[in-house]
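hiii, so i know i said id send this last week but things got crazy w the move. better late than never?? heres the sequnce for the chain we talked about at the cafe, plus the structure i predicted for it. fair warning i was half asleep when i ran it
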Amino acid sequence: MMAGVRHAQVGSLPGTDFAAAARFALAETPDPSHLPELPARGAPAQLVGRATALAPGLAFDLQPAGWRLTGGALGVGDSADARRARALLRDDLDRFEEAAQGFVGPVTVSAAGPLTLAANVELPRGDKVLADPGARRDLGQALTEGLRGLVDELRGRLPDIEWSLQLDEPQAGAVLAGSVPTASGYDRHRPLPAPQAAQEYAELARALAGVPLGLHSCAAEFPWELSADLDSVSLDGERLGTRDRDEIARWLESGRELRLGVVPTTTPGRVPGVDEVIGRTLSVLRPLELGEAAVQNLVLTPACGLAGWSAADAHRVLRTLRDATEPVAEQLTR
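okay and structure toks below
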């Protein structure tokens, strides 16, 4: 295969059998692979619930409106749902370790990013953490500490794997734009200034030094403001504006990894053919006229997770991406 074009998944997979999902991920996307998420198991296994399980020293419970800080100590203020989230994470790590015996190569672990987490988790007395700078800082620091500990643990369990982190930020654009609704639904939280968010991301990257760090968002308006200290970005190729194309060109010229979503995931079961995937990829990258630089660090992915798909269709998606990698490299380097 030419020029290093690869294929990958961006996180979630269908079903509730984690051991089977881990074997599937390791076999179908070996470079890079990923530690799967299975949201079908309920809120404790979904994006925000998963992140609460990574935040040491904080306690959470699950309300009809979503996850909430309790204000209590870890292990005291946690609800049954929060304990379930932590237990699921521990069990998943055990099962992934078993499935990955003998595997050598890169694996990505994904988690909710700090902006999306602040826009979803509520304070003990209501409203979002986003409304309280001190609480947002505490939650972000706990997440960073938890991610650092998770990578250290995984390196100890599976030292032959090259571990990286992917921060999922579907709501980063809304946080920066000031379009996140307040608890009442009648108002919006004030926008988080982009320089402040960028500084917080720089601090996060420093705290996770030595861990390759990526950002994924399949929402419109990719948050490039957060990307200065990152090693990879992952975005939906169908939702690009003029700014995105300019940023992609600069990104690839800098030698950093681009994970480009070229299989739409909003219609489960609609698996495009290889030629369609090639066409989507070329429509984004060929106008940039980057030649070899366009494919040196290119990874083809679904636009978002595949949790709502069948296992058979998820398999077909990843096989289609694999089959498109070599033709894409050939076309872009002619």
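btw Strands lie at 6-7, 33-34, 60-63, 66-69, 105-112, 161-168, 213-217, 232-236, 257-263, 298-302. thought thatd interest u
miss u guys!!
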